[in-house]
Amino acid sequence: MAHYNGIIEIARDLEHVLARFEPGDAAELVSLLRVFSASTEAGRDRVASEIARLVMRSLGPDDPVFKALNETRYAHVRQGSLAALFSVRLALGLPASDDPRERILGSQPVTAATELRSHGVDPDLPDLIRLPRPDGSVSVPDFQFDVDRRPRSVVLQVNRVLGAETDPWAVADWWVSGNVWLDAVPVTLVADRIAEPGLVAAATAAVDG
């Protein structure tokens, strides 16, 4: 998808991007993002191009978002995930704080721990990411399981390296954020066996600094 890296950066830093726009352009950007969120995958490239033209017209070439709009290193990120993220953020009445929890919950499907148990899956398995919610419930990101609801071994290994038991939100954020080491967003590689060693190496590099 054209301009995908820039669209990701806009989503992550939406309130700050809007703050640099004239009121009319800010309103137009929000409108385009709503259209992007509601569009089918086939139609999002056109809307993304309109967003890019508006943003690049309003921001200088040295602006990080401007530069990101001309990069393609996240080309394999799912469009649906980003559309869901925009839907969540805009529904919350942004501009608002860029809470990583919003980004995580907006970009990845999750299942309640109680529902997993009802399907015979143990949500308390060591090294699974379990996200505590304000209402006391626990959400478990679906990407940790294969189609048969079996935990992916590489995900458990990476979670262990990153310390999911101690800080599950931070580890979940690692999975859904762009990674320089991988030149990709880690969660997009979980089903790629060839990429498994790279995921573990990237996690280890993150811990070792």
Structure description:
By secondary structure, the protein is mainly α. The protein folds into two domains: 1-107, no CATH class; 108-209, no CATH class. 54% of the residues lie in helices and 4% in strands. The protein is built from eleven helices and three strands, in the order αααααααβαββααα. The chain has helices at residues 4-12, 14-19, 23-38, 41-58, 64-68, 79-91, 100-107, 113-118, 153-162, 168-176, 196-208; strands at residues 110-112, 131-132, 138-141. A three-stranded antiparallel beta sheet has the order 1-3-2. β2 (131-132) and β3 (138-141) form a beta hairpin. α3 crosses α6, α6 packs across α7 (100-107) and α9 packs parallel to α11 (196-208). 32% of the residues are buried. Mean pLDDT is 78; it is low at 73-78 and 94-98.
